[in-house]
Amino acid sequence: MRRSVLPIAVTAALAFSAQPAVAAPESGPDSPASTVPNDPPTESDRVIVKFHDPAAAETTKEKVVEEAAENALSETKAPEVSEKVKSTAAQADVLELDRELDEAEQKKLVAEIQADPAVEYAEADRLASSSWMPSDVYTPYQWTLLPAQGGVNFPGAWDVSRGNGQTIAVLDTGITSHPELNSKVLPGRDFINDTALSRDGDLRDANPQDQGDWSAAGECSAAARPSSWHGTHVAGLAAGVTNNGAGISGAAPGAKILPVRVLGKCTNGWVSDIADAVTWSAGAAVAKQPANKNPASVINMSLNYPGECGATMQNAINSAVNRRVPVVVAAGNSAVNAGGTAPANCANTIVVGASDNAGNTASYSNTGAVVDVLAPGGTAQFPMLSTVNGGTTTPGAATYGNLYGTSMATPLVSGTVAMMKQRDPAITPARVEQILKSTASGRLGSLNLNPSAAVRTVASTGQAQASYTATGGIGAKWRSTGGAAKWGNPVTNEANAANGGRYQEFVKNGRKITIYWSSATGANIVENATLIGKKFIAAGRERGYGFPASGEARVNGGSYQLYRNGSSVTKTLWSASSGAHAVKETGAIGGAWKRAGLERGWGWPTTDEYTSNGEVRQQFSHGVTAHWTSKRGVWTTR
After folding, report:
1. Residue 445 has what pLDDT?
2. ω into residue 343 within 30 of 0, thus cis?
3. Is 131 a catalytic residue?
4. What pLDDT was estimated at residue 18?
5. φ/ψ (deg, to 5) at 152
């Protein structure tokens, strides 16, 4: 099967040594230029199409695409649809064509598809690939973390925050076992849905291990390339173990790492897979994937690809930001305007360029108005030391090595964001970006990251409990249900929620609650750490189920909470045997479940509603599966 190679550049350069981190030479020879990969072709044999009716017949969808191809490219040149590869988290279809299209053909086809009234949007799917600038220089000194020239002052930030309780999702090549990382790594996921790239013989699964992105001569470039262990390097920079008497220090040493594998062979990965990984990492649902039990506090993407930000990636980023999860992305290494590369040109991202050892913009770094902040990315002579693997192709022994690029700058910013979020868990991505930019000043220039100032700014405005008060309906609910003795003190000011509502966060001994208020529901408490609370957060908070219309209540050995969104009522239920799932009480299936006796009738929900074979279905613990179609209504099977 032919594969296109549209690049998402892993925005790093290889400066890697498989030896332990011992004293290194002050300089070293450049690697042969032949190891630098050629620019990959821009052809693609995939298209992403979001239909207004995702449940439409597959033959109908294929006909739309094939007729558009005939109109756009002529009958003789028009490709046919080979297969549906998958559906994205946004219920768009990824369709594989029987031949590759060049950029001009892609634009014509996409424009013609989008003109069909059945289509919400369409775009070409793209691949990510690496962009290396190799060097053999090796240094054991993490100059980038220190306040000396060229570095930034992380120790000044560590005095007030280390990112405790926060999770950094690293969307990359995966991760390998390493003593600096193993204690920090949470259960991640492999989102590569292409066996030609996955190298582990399967598709999406629970194993995010980096299988190696090496390539033989002529596969991805003229020369053979060793594995980069890029994801392991990025993870170490973001949150490697600190103060253990060995190795390196991560930017946010108290944070956890959520490894999400999106780049495989040749460091390639499809945009449609990466977008789903963004959605899952933030805690939202992705079809056929288990729920993420450890939603990210911040998402790191040290990658990029040429062209505009399509709806697939933008929707995923918006979904994360709506869940108050900042998305930090690399500007790219081509020394061009970053506005021409995605996801740097996507809205609602924090875009990171690279500075060199003198604190100036690195010669390779993309620049332009979309770049929000610079962080140390290193150079060939002064690269970035971090965790890597000693294997030339497949994983070997853990070691330390050097890379440089905007890929390396990005996790330093993600680590800073994690420390900011420890100080104020409810801080919005927009506020995070504003603080990073407003504190990036001093002798290194107006864009240079200042972790100490950024974290301390949040501390002075977002943490001191005495500076917050709870008033109005939210304050009344807090006081009437136990106040500070039960729920702790407010850690944020009251803030705007969706649809004219309000919310405020409270913390006691690390346990966080959010009190929401709306004119329709009044004030009610969401306990963020319970499985019901996590379900609410994963669904998009008030933008998903609506505002809580009750607190958590016990019933028949389990718990439930009600939510109202206009006239729609959703009940999330939990039991030890079924887990937490939502029933749409005002929907057809939920209404029938309610009339049948709630959890005493059909039982506890064991799934959310899902679509299968043109039906909406939901399963319950007493062996009941409820089905619904518009023609037949609701019926059950056992």
Report:
1. 53
2. yes
3. no
4. 28
5. -130, 160
Max Cα-Cα span within the chain? 76
pLDDT confidence bin for 441, thresholds 50/70/90: low
Catalytic residue among 87, 221, 227, 407: 407
pLDDT digits (tens, 9 = 90+) for 261-317: 999 998 989 999 999 999 999 999 999 999 999 999 999 999 989 889 999 999 999
Q: Determine, yes or no, domain membership for 71.
A: no
Pairing type for strands 384-389 and 398-404 reads antiparallel
CA distance linking residue 496 with residue 171, whole number of Å? 30
Active site residue 172: yes
Looking at the DSSP assignment, which residues form a beta bridge with residue 91?
A: none
Number of domains, the chain: 3
Same domain, 551 and 422: no
Q: Is the pLDDT of residue 216 over 70?
A: yes
Residue 628 clears pLDDT 90, i.e. is over it: yes
Residues 496 and 381 in one domain: no
pLDDT in tens, 23-40: 222 222 222 222 333 344
Which residue in this structure is represented by tokens 């020394």? 335
- Alpha-carbon dihedral angle through residues 581, 582, 587, 591, given to the nearest 10 degrees: 70
Domain final residue pick, 430, 459, 488? 459
Question: Which position among 172, 190, 356, 372 bears the catalytic label?
Answer: 172
What are the backbone dihedrals phi and psi of residue 76, each rounded to the nearest 5 degrees, phi first? Answer: -75, -30
Please provide the size of the chain in residues.
Answer: 638
Verify that 247 and 310 share a domain, yes or no: yes
The H or E element that residue 580 is part of is strand 579-584
Tell me the pLDDT tens digit for each residue of 560-598: 999 999 999 999 999 999 999 999 999 999 999 999 999
Q: Is the pLDDT of residue 240 over 80?
A: yes
Q: Strand 341-342 to strand 44-51: parallel, antiparallel, or no bridges (unpaired)?
A: unpaired
Q: Are 220 and 40 in contact (CB under 8 A)?
A: yes
Do 383 and 517 lie in one domain? The reply is no
Q: Are 626 and 609 contacting, i.e. CB atoms less than 8 angstroms apart?
A: no
Answer yes or no: are the C-beta atoms of 245 and 400 closer than 8 Å.
no
Residue 123 lies in a domain: no
pLDDT score for 380: 87
- Residue 117 within any structural domain of the chain: no
CA pair distance 401, 605, nearest whole angstrom:
49
Beta strands in 276-383 (DSSP E): 298-301, 303-306, 327-330, 341-342, 350-355, 373-376
Indicate if 98 belongs to the active site. no
Strands (E), 298-349: 298-301, 303-306, 327-330, 341-342
Say how far residue 18 (Cα) sits from the centre of its chain.
30
Domain that holds residue 608: 530-638
Which of 17, 44, 190, 230 is catalytic? The answer is 230
Q: Are 326 and 391 found together in one domain?
A: yes
Is the residue at 85 inside a domain? no
